[in-house]
Amino acid sequence: ENIRKNSSSSRRVRRLQNGAVVEAVTLFEVVIMGKRAMQSVVDDWVEAYKQDRNVALLDLINFFIQCSGCQGMVTAEMFQSTHKNDVMQKMTETFDEDGEDYPLIRTGSYWKKFRANFCEFIAVLVQQCQCSILYDSYLMDAIISLLTGLADSMIRAFRHTSTLAAMKLLTAVVGVHLNLDVNKHNAQRLYEVEKNRISGKRTNYRLDQLERKGKELLEIQNMMNAIFKGTFLSRYRDVIPEIRATCMEEIGSLINTYPDTYLNDSYLKYIGWMLYDKQPEVRLKCLLGLQGIYSRKELVYKMDLFTSRFKDRIVSMPLDKDHEVAVQAMKLLMLMNCEDVLSDEDCETLYQLVYTTHRPLAVAAGEFLYKRLLSYEGDEEVVPKEGGKSGANAHQLKRLIHFFLDSEVHKHVAYLIDSLWDWAGTFLKDWECMTTLLLKNDGGDREALNDAHKSALTEIILATVREAAEGHPPAGRGAAKKILSVKEKKIQSEDCTKITEHFIMVLPQLLAKYSTDAQKVANLLQIPQYYDLDVYSTGHLEKHLDALLREVKDIVVKHSDMSVLEASSRTYYILCSEEIAIYNQVDRARTQLIDELTGQLNQLLDGFWQKVSVTHCGDKQTDMCFYLQMILPALQCTYFSLLWQVAAAAENSSKKPDCDLWCLMEMQMAVGMKSNVVSGSFIGFVCLIQAFVILCDWLLILSHQDSNNNEEAVGLLDYLPSTSLQEKLLLFVQEHIFVEEKEESKDLTKEEERKDESCKLDDLNKKRSLLAAYCKLIVFNVVETTAAAEIYKHYVKAYNDFGDIIKETLSRTRHNNRIESARALILCLQQTCAESQDGSTGVDLASASFTNMKELARRFSLTFGWDQVKSRESVAMIHKEGIEFAFQGATGTDGKCFPPNLSFLLIISEFSYKLLKPDKKLVYAYLQRYTVEPLPYSRDEWQPLIWYKNSLLANEDEESSVLGSLGEWSQMGTSKASSCKRKLSNVKILFLNCLFQTLLRASPISYLGNTEPEALGYLLWVSQQQNVICALLSLNKTCATYDFSRKVSRDLAFFFFSKDEINTEDVLMERQAGDKSEDADVDVIDGDQVISDWVFQLCGQLYLGWVNMSSEPREYPPGCRAHFVAPFRLRKEVLPSSLSSCV
Description:
By secondary structure, the protein is mainly alpha-helical. Helix content is about 70%, strand content about 0%. Strands 1-2 form a two-stranded antiparallel ribbon. The protein is flat. The relative contact order is 0.02. Part of the cohesin complex which is composed of a heterodimer between a SMC1 protein (SMC1A or SMC1B) and SMC3, which are attached via their hinge domain, and RAD21 which link them at their heads, and one STAG protein. It is found in: Nucleus; Chromosome; Chromosome, Centromere. This is Cohesin subunit SA. Belongs to the SCC3 family.
């Protein structure tokens, strides 16, 4: 050890710098600090090795040990020992296994730099030693032996560090092998040349040099084999994924660096096997290594067997759950495709990944699609010879259209364009070519686009325009809009100008040609929103604006499709911006259109009413269906009109909504009242649903105006729903949402079953929408919170269909007002209880309805969470109103009339564990007002009251008095049980805690020896027999691991568990002289009662401590199970809920 220290000081001695003393540091500290050039550090070590190789090598060994995070040091005596296994065992013993943190896995830039310095040190060490000490048969043997031994260690840090060091060492040695191979080749050539020209000493020198190079190569090959077999083969399937990833990374690097030796199936198979690894980082390293191999065309021909064996696995990896692995697999497949190893089926599968939501994978798939299907790279035969660049782009567009239609994912064209944008932006921005294809007359041309192709092309045009104008991925692909750079903003601005200048002139022509096609027109009408509208005025292009407005007007008049009308409205909205110069021109055209539409509507209505008066047949059913066809659009028109009036009223207080609001409500309620007439009519049912949704939305908007505290909107408060309207809304929900559909057994075909399931799913979605609309009224206090009670009744029964909506409603209402929300819950339970009563017999506790009601209460209690303080008032209010409801119908407090709702106490007992201890006492006191003792009826009839009291007194000191009064405890009378109310002084609690802590140490029984479990079981068994003194003595005698003196055992036993009535003050004076103040308040206690209570509490605490201290669920230890469970059976009925579940 002294020799090692002297070596270190000789290499890094103390020196004075500016008067400060700098201490010598170890090789590990020099590398981890990284302040010196690595080559100079290695040179210093090499010089020290040449002076004393044992000392220098010892320093290097300690370097690897310290890099593993071990605090131990290998001394000179240990190093010189012939038993190398003893050294490894000693290092393993000194390693701190509690700390799983070691340098290689620590996070942060500092430790990341250390890892780089560590790898660089090994590479530089081999490089600096290759001309001298690398072949001395001592240095490398010792290093390889050390790293191989550490790689087989049970300590993760040793294995990880030594594996990384060994693989970096192997890479460095391979580099030396390559240099030697080149030098040997050069020496061979020089020898051949000189052999033919001269002879003698010169030739002998070259021959000796050649032989020396051959020996060195042989030694290097032996080193490579030793490292590979000793480290890689044992660690590439290590349980730690970081170690496996390191092995895969280095084997890929070795194959790329030295393919002559490692590029064969004997080494490639390891990469192929690990493609199936469960950890994504290992799979990623395999893919990166294969990318390096397949990127070199001169190596691909050697990969035929590997490709045929593992191609299917690689083709499936773009679907990997890890995004980075999927992206790299896609890039690898692009390299493999260069050799045409992928079949058409494989490519078709990979093409569909352009529609994935993960953009990097979609972009990689877009590159694959572009190079394989759309590009002309290496496909000169299909390049069109006519038309030049425009013809090439047209041909690519046709290929893209065919692919889009064949993929049958028509709604995702924006995703397709975004995937191709980085690779095919040149022809995707050729809007002139696209519009030319649309405006081109067919003329019998075979290659002309059909109607489906033109529809797809309009979608592609819109998607490319949006991508160029907005500059960010479509919705759903990408977390947020990216921040554009200056260059990207410039490109975006240029693209917007190009779009505007081209489509200003071409778009009116397109709209005129396809004015009758709703799908094409709806897409084309969205293009103006991406215009630079100032170009109209600056370029003096007002005539093109007139043409556009004229075409839009004709389209509005011709079409009734909602998507076309919405696109037209959006176009008018964009063009009618007051900030631009063309506002007056567009506003005039819009006003003219509205006037014409209004006139046409009036004419149509006059003609309609005349037709109705002429064709009136007098059949009420027919007349109702006839009128219903007009109700739905009338409701929508009225609703939108009222929305505009509300918006105007918010801006100008002088404007008020007119009586159309009341007309809307009257029509909606009229439909609701006549629901029995139109129930068989599909149109009537649709109108009914639409009326309900419109009414809910309208009421919600009015409440929103109120919540904004807008003084101008105060007049709108007169329109809030009345009580009768709220009742009608609730009645609609009850009749149309929570209705059980009758199961009809029919023999249906598979197609009919599929349609039936689809219809049921659509009906469920409609019901969910209706329920959500009504629940929003409850959440925003439009209707009374108590109305939610009718909704909450179905929480358990309809949980699969509506549970999430009801639960969210409960959470939101509780956030608004906890008391009102709790009142709705207790009202729900009260109504459910009243509905389940069977005449005078009351509720059957064994009935299914009562079980469902109890389950509903349990579900409600779970929604309060763990914060008992936050829900304190709500839970207390539930108990208060629950007690009052339970004793309704009793004649006063004399108990002459049995309460008919007494079973409701079992329902609210589900909320007892949510009460704080002080609140339990208050609730218990409130309960006492309604009860008298002795009970006037039999105990069975009052059983709900007994159970409810037990739930309130769980873990309370008063529980024994109640149980004793009911004859439920031991053989103690009522008076004797009541006298057992007591108070433990601070000193008693202190002694009890000492005893408990001592016993708690024995609770994780599986960690102790064979005697402690039996001792603990014996203790519990003896305690159950109340022979506590013997139990404590047995514990002291058997559990020798604890310092538990017999004197303390006897004192504690005498102090707590005497059979006779004792005064604890005398004992305290004996044990603690002068400390009388701590036990000023003492009581005379009964030994039997204390024993039973204490044993019960002790067993429960021991069990909970045992479970909490164990990292995983454990079985009861042998010979102790019966003793451990038995104490719980004494008083199971008073267990708190946390312990009752355990039992």
